[in-house]
Amino acid sequence: MSSARPAPPALWPAAVFAMGLAALLAATVVVVDHLPSLRAAASGLLEAERPGDADHYLAGDIGGQVDHHVLFFGIDADAQSRLQAAEVLFLGNSRLMFALRPEVLRPGFAALGRSYYAMGFGFREADRFPLAIIRRFDLRPRLVVVNADGFFGGGLSAWAEVVNRDTAFAARKLRWEAETAHDVRRAVHIVAPNWLALFGRPGLGHARELNMYRSRFDGTWQVSPWPESHTAFAPPPVDGPPLSRGEIAAARAFKSEMDARGTRLVVTRVPTPEPHGGAGPARFADLLQVPLVMVAPPGLTSGDRSHLDQASAHDWSRAFLEALTPHLGDAGPPR
After folding, report:
1. Residues 6 or more apart whose Cβ sits within 8 Å of residue 86
2. 201: helix, coil or strand?
3. For site-directed labelling of 95, which of 1, 177, 226, 278 has its Cα 20 to 30 A away?
4. Residue 232 forms beta bridges with which residues?
5. Domain-by-domain residue ranges, the chain?
6. What is the pairing mode between strands 88-91 and 116-118?
């Protein structure tokens, strides 16, 4: 008795898919090469390069944010040790992270014999999340510099609430998945640019390809590709509207926490065309009786009408470090 062999699986669906994908890839290359606007957009995708050193890790990209989990759970040993050793801690939103340029800060702080760390976050993160990290790891910097741009009394971002509910295992899993997806996207974009980014997502418009890599050494961001600059702007007034009761309570509670840790407080605000709202830094400095360190170099420009562009960020960092230096001397001898 003979048994019939099963028929081999049909290969034509896979062949059709492979031929269709090859045709789409070829069509994309031809179209992008012949249309200047798409060619410029494709070059922006390919310029989003990872830093060529082991100092940086992925902070966030078009797929989501990662560095909230990394710093909250302390899952990067090098970054964690630098954070805990920092004498000066910078706190604030993404505007601060765009503005702080390590090419300026590193040699400047090294010459002063001081260590620093930039612990700002995206999602317009306010005071509660960085304060939770300070308490979690018992951080005791000599000086804390706050970018008073919606910082005091801003609560938690929706993403920070997710982080608070997660576990260390979930944080490591998220980081591995984000890093893997990021590397795959970069490799695929070399062959074929992201069609959704080039032609827009249905109902959502064009998605900007923006990658942030965070330094383990000092916490600063490297942004790639940096948004192109637009017209110059004048910084908003330093006082702004009157303080609300919530801002007063949050600012005093934050200052009390810093006092208990032996930490001095300095208030600033990174220049921006569109402030988040709330009282200005001068009002918080008066309320808390702390120094106000404000600089606004002439000709500042923004790449996205919110953050400083790259050239303005360098100008601001140089001017700000010079203005901050006298207050570093008041923070006691270097460790």
Report:
1. 115, 116, 117, 139, 141
2. strand
3. 177
4. 301
5. 55-186+204-329
6. parallel
Q: In the predicted model, what is the mean pLDDT of residues 30-58? A: 67
**One-letter amino acid of 95:** R
Which residue, 326, 267, 323, 283, is CA-closest to 96? 267
Tokens at residue 163, please? 């982080």
- 122: closest CA among 92, 166, 101? 92
Q: Which two tokens stand for residue 335?
A: 């460790």
Which CATH code is given to the segment(s) 55-186+204-329? 3.40.50.1110
pLDDT band for 209, please (50, 70, 90 cuts).
low
Edge-to-edge strand ranges of the sheet holding 221-224: 64-65, 56-61, 211-215, 221-224
Q: Which pLDDT score, from 0 to 100, does residue 218 have?
A: 97
CB atoms within 10 A of CB 209: 21
Q: Measure the CA–CA gap between 180 and 63, rounded to whole angstroms.
A: 11
DSSP string computed for 222-280: EEESPPPP--B-PPPPSS-SPPPHHHHHHHHHHHHHHHHTT-EEEEE----SS---S--
Alpha helices in the chain (DSSP H): 12-34, 36-46, 67-73, 77-85, 94-99, 102-112, 128-136, 158-165, 168-191, 195-199, 245-260, 281-288, 310-329
Residue 332 has pLDDT above 60, yes or no: yes
In this prediction, residue 198 carries a pLDDT of 57
- Residue-wise pLDDT tens digits, 145-182: 999 999 998 789 999 999 999 999 999 999 999 999 88
